[in-house]
Amino acid sequence: MSETTDVPGALAEALGAEHAAVYGYEYLRGVAGDQGRRDAAGEYSRLHKALRDTLHDAAVELGVGPETARSSYPLPSDQDAASLDAYAVGMEETTARAYVWLTAADDPALRSTAARALQAATVRALVWGGGLDTLPGFEEA
Question: What's the CA gap between 11 and 132, in Å, rounded?
Answer without folding.
Answer: 24
